[in-house]
Specification:
This is Polysaccharide deacetylase family protein. Helices cover about 40% and strands about 10% of the residues. It is of the alpha/beta class and about 260 residues long. The chain has a single domain, classed as Glycoside hydrolase/deacetylase (TIM Barrel, Alpha-Beta Barrel). Strands 1, 2, 3, 4, 5, 6, 7 and 8 form an 8-stranded parallel sheet that branches. Helix 6 packs parallel to helix 7 and helix 8 runs parallel beside helix 9.
Length: about 260
C-alpha cells in the first residue's frame, strides 16, 4: 500500500478500503448474511423504529455487509459528501435508475450543505455517519476522541437533515474499533463495511470502475463510491453505466441490514 502514502487522507482511505475488502472476502459476505444479528429475522423490520425524531434503538455492533433486499440485493454506498458539485449528479442518476443508496456523510460537509442532506433524505436514501474529521487512524486514538468524532458528527448530520438520524456508522478507511462499533450501535447506527471497492479515489477511469464492480459484485452486495474529495466525474460516469447493468443482471437496489 506504499503507493498510496503521502496523498493525504483520501489515499489512506483507499489503502484501508482494500484491507477491509480483503477481510470481507476472507470472512465471506455469506457468513455475514447468515448472522442472526443481521436484522433478517421475520418481523425485525416491522418493529424497528423510524429514523426520524425518536430515540434510536440499539442495533447490532457487528459490521454489516448484507442487503435488506436479499440475495440479489445491491447496496450502493456513497461516501465523504455531500458536495455541491457531485452529490446532485449522483442523486439524479440514482433517481433515473430507480435506485436507493446509503450516503456516508461527513459532519462538517453536512453542516455546510444542509439542503443536500435534506435532498438525500427526501429522495428516500439513508444516511450514514462518517465522523467529523475523516480520520483514518481513528482506531489508534483514545476512546474520548472516537466518541467526539462520532457523536459530534451525529449532531451535525441530524441537524442538517431536519431530524433524520444516521442509520449506519462507517469508520473512515474502515478504522473501526470494538469501542466505536459499540458506541455507534448504542446510538442506532449499524457499523457498515463494504465488499466491492470501485477504487474511484484512484481515478482509474470509469471503464475500470465498471469492470471492478462487474467482476466483484458476486462476492458481496455492498459497493463503495465517493461523491466528494476531488473530481468525481469518473464516478458519475461509472454510475451511469453500472446502475443499468446491475438492473439488467437482475439485481435490486437495497439498503444494508441493520
Ligand atoms: Zn470516507
Amino acid at each position: 500500500m506504499a503507493r498510496h502514502r503521502g496523498r493525504g487522507w483520501h489515499g489512506r482511505v483507499v489503502a484501508a478500503a482494500l484491507g477491509v475488502t480483503a477481510l470481507a472476502a476472507a470472512t465471506s459476505v455469506w457468513t455475514a448474511r447468515a448472522d442472526p444479528a443481521g436484522g433478517r429475522q421475520p418481523g425485525a423490520r416491522a418493529s424497528a423504529p423510524a429514523a426520524q425524531d425518536r430515540a434510536p434503538a440499539k442495533v447490532s455492533a457487528e459490521i454489516a455487509h448484507a442487503s435488506e433486499a436479499g440475495d440479489r440485493g445491491v447496496n450502493i454506498t456513497i461516501d465523504d459528501g455531500p458536495d455541491p458539485t457531485w452529490t446532485p449528479q449522483v442523486l439524479r442518476l440514482l433517481k433515473d435508475n430507480g435506485a436507493k443508496a446509503t450516503f456516508c456523510v461527513v459532519g462538517p460537509q453536512a453542516e455546510a450543505h444542509p439542503d443536500l442532506v435534506k435532498e438525500i433524505v427526501a429522495a428516500g436514501h439513508r444516511l450514514c455517519n462518517h465522523t467529523v474529521s475523516h480520520d483514518t487512524t481513528m482506531d489508534t486514538k483514545p476512546e474520548a476522541y472516537q466518541s467526539q468524532q462520532i457523536l459530534d458528527a451525529e449532531r451535525m448530520i441530524t441537524k442538517a437533515s431536519g431530524g433524520v438520524r444516521s442509520q449506519y456508522y462507517r469508520a473512515p478507511g474502515g478504522a473501526f474499533t470494538p469501542y466505536s462499533r459499540q458506541l455507534a450501535a448504542s446510538h442506532g447506527m449499524r457499523p457498515l463495511g463494504w465488499n466491492v471497492d470501485s477504487r474511484d479515489f484512484e481515478r482509474p477511469g470509469a471503464d475500470a470502475m465498471v469492470a471492478t464492480v462487474k467482476r466483484e459484485i458476486s462476492g458481496g452486495p455492498t459497493v463503495l463510491f465517493h461523491d466528494a474529495g476531488g473530481d468525481r466525474a469518473q464516478t458519475v460516469a461509472a454510475l451511469r453505466e453500472v446502475l443499468p447493468w446491475l438492473k439488467q443482471q437482475g439485481y435490486s437496489f437495497g439498503f444494508p441490514v441493520r
